[in-house]
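tl;dr need the bound structure. longer version: we got a ligand (magnesium ion) that a collaborator sent over and nobodys looked at where it sits. i said id run it. heres the input, straight from their email, havent touched it
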Amino acid sequence: MKITRIAVHQVDLPLREGRYSWSGGKSVSVFDSTVVRVDTDEGLTGWGEVCPLGPVYLPSYAAGARAGIRELAPALLGQDPTGLELLNRLMDRTLKGHPYAKSALDMACWDILGKAAGQPLCTLLGGRYEEDFVLYRAISQRSPEEMAENVAGYREQGYRRFQLKAGSDVKTDIARIRAVREVLEDDDILVADANTGWLMHEAARVVRGVRDVDVYIEQPCASYEECLTIRRRTDHPFVLDESVDGLSMLLQAHADGAMDVANIKISKFGGLTRARQARDLCASMGVAMTVEDSWGGDIITAAIAHLAHSTPTEFLFTSTDFNSYGTVSIADGAPTGVDGRMRASEAPGLGVEPKLDVLGEPVFEVS
Ligand code: MG
C-alpha cells in the first residue's frame, strides 16, 4: 500500500464555556485544529488531528503544525502507511524536532493500519482493558467560588477526577484548592495543575498552605529542576507534564524519583507511535499516567480513547474527552464521555467518520 495524497484541513473549535484559562493569564476561546487526511492507492483513507493549546502552552502552534505537515508530506508520498516505525524514522530524517507536526500524520497512518487489519486501534495498541476507562474534567481558572461551583456541576455529570487550573497568586491558588476540595467526596481525585506558573518560593508556599488537603500537584514550575526541588520538599503526590516530552526525560524523572504520575500527551511525544512507547515505558517503571493530548476535537478524542483504553487500568490515572468541551463536532463515531467514563470504538482504525461539510475544502494538499 502506498500513500497517494495528503490533504490538510483547518477547523475552529469554539468552547462551550466560552473561554479556557490557565496559569499566567493565558487563555483560549476558539481552538485552531488541524485535520489531516491521508489517501492510499488501495482506497483506504486515514484521518489524524493535532490541536495545540494555543501558541504559549508547549513550543507548538496551529500554523506551525500546518507548516510542519507541509514540509513532511512530500516525503511521505509513495510510502507504506502501515510501517509506522519506519515512517516515523523517515519523518525524523525529514524534519528535526517538531513532534506535534508529525502527530496528525502518524495518527492518520495508524487509522489506515487499523482499517487494513480490520481491528480497532485499541487492539493494535495492546488490547482493551475492562469495559471503559476513567476521565477527568479540567476546570478553567476562575475565582475559587466559581471553580468550586463548576466542579460541583461536573460532578453531577458523573466526573470524579478534577484538574484545577492553578498557577496564579499563592493566596488565590490555596483558596481554589480548598474551595474545590470542600465540594468533593473522599474518593474523588483533585489535581492542582500550575502549568509552570509558580516560581519555587511560590510553589513552596502553596504546597505548605495545602499540606492537610488531599491534592496532587502537577507541573508547579517551568523547568524540570525547579519541579524536582519542589517535589523533594512536599509529600503531595506529584505529576509531571510539560517537562516530560520524551523517553529520556521519563527515564531521568523516574531515576530521580521526580514523579508519581506522568502526563502523556499524544502530540507532545509526536504521535501514537511515540506516545505508545512512552506509555509502555511508564507502565514498566510503575508510573501511572494521564493519557491525553494538548487539546482537540472528535478525531483526537478517538485517538486518546484507543491509547487510554489499551493502557493497563491500574496505570491509567485519568484521560480526557476533549470533544465534550467544544461546540463543534467534526466527526461521527467518536466516543463520548458518559458518567465520567469513556470507551474506545470497536470499529476498525480510529472508528471515526469525519464530517466533510464541517471540515470544508483543504487548506492545502500534496499528491
Ligand atoms: Mg498538565
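gonna send this back to them w/ a short note. Residues 10 and 34 are 5 Å apart (CA to CA).
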